[in-house]
Amino acid sequence: STPELRFDNRVVIVSGAGGGLGKAYSLFFASRGAKVVVNDLGSGLKGEGSSASAADLVVDEIKKAGGEAIADYNNVLEGEKIVEKAMKAYGRIDIIINNAGILRDKSFKSMTDKDWDDVMNVHLHGAYKITKAAWPIMRKQKYGRVIMTSSAAGIYGNFGQANYAAAKQALIGFSNSLAYEGFKYNILSNAIAPLAASRMTATVMPKEILEALKPEFIAPLVAFLTHEKCKQTGGLFEIGAGKITAHRWQGTEGVVFKADESFTPAAVKARFDEIDNFDNNGRVYYPASMKDNDWLGKLEEAKGLSTNAKGEELRFD
Ligand code: NAI
């Protein structure tokens, strides 16, 4: 059988860990030897109110099972305080699971500035604040593992979730950029788009489906991606009900116009179906970095081979 992946002596910060996914991660990491900072300000689903008991209950459960954890009640917007607390208690930070979140679903027409700001703040700014405070520590250690919690709504957009989707898509770009900047220091960052039963999904999905979507079924991927043996960085994974898929961009073969006065909006219109053709006998490509769309090269060779950022051949297949 495959050996168990352990986290002995690793220090993990899990934000929003008082319930749902964060709780499942915290219990799992602690059961595998990690010291866990269980952060949760104990708010309601929409970010209203606060209570220490959410984080405390998780810490109690970890301790009863013989694990090590401390509770932290700070708002993720005060990420530096969370990091300070972790350093005081354990002296290092190996893993950050940016997980805290709230919902303010509303049609864009009815969305207030506060609905927008509060959602962006908790998801995006909160992840920024914790990660920013821990970054110099991880660089100095030459070790770090970061998870950003995105969402299918962030990848694809969703009716009534303009604020949430904007924050969740932003977390992917954030993660991908940290993957570049952290690589030299063995700091890896990946984004996940989970689907699990929690108070967040309790009202939007039928009971039978929710039963198949245990939050515990997200932990194996999160733990693998944050283990010292993992080399994956800059990835995006959808996961739910035991199924994990990796996601990347796809570009069409495209159209190269002559860059002269014939390049008009009407010329674009005339060939728009070709530009937008994702079903061109499979002639699509899969850019993995900014450099993969080789604009100048396309003047020479609009088709066939190109190279990506690592100098590897990219084939239209
Ligand atoms: P949840 O509502 O059970 O957990 C979120 C936790 O974050 C709560 O315990 C809440 O008190 C805490 N929190 C909220 N604002 C905070 C703040 N400012 N500072 C510290 N803690 C704060 O929801 P769930 O489902 O466990 O969500 C976890 C993450 O996964 C969220 O980022 C969510 O957007 C994301 N997600 C969940 C999906 C699902 O199917 N459950 C789908 C896609 C994404």
From TrEMBL:
GO terms for molecular function: enoyl-CoA hydratase activity; oxidoreductase activity. Residues 10-198 form the Ketoreductase domain. Keywords: Fatty acid metabolism, Lipid metabolism, Lyase, NADP, Oxidoreductase, Peroxisome. It is found in: Peroxisome. GO terms for cellular component: peroxisome. Its main location: other. GO terms for biological process: fatty acid metabolic process. Belongs to the short-chain dehydrogenases/reductases (SDR) family. This is Ketoreductase domain-containing protein. It comes from Coemansia asiatica. The chain holds residues 4 to 320 of 931 of the full protein.
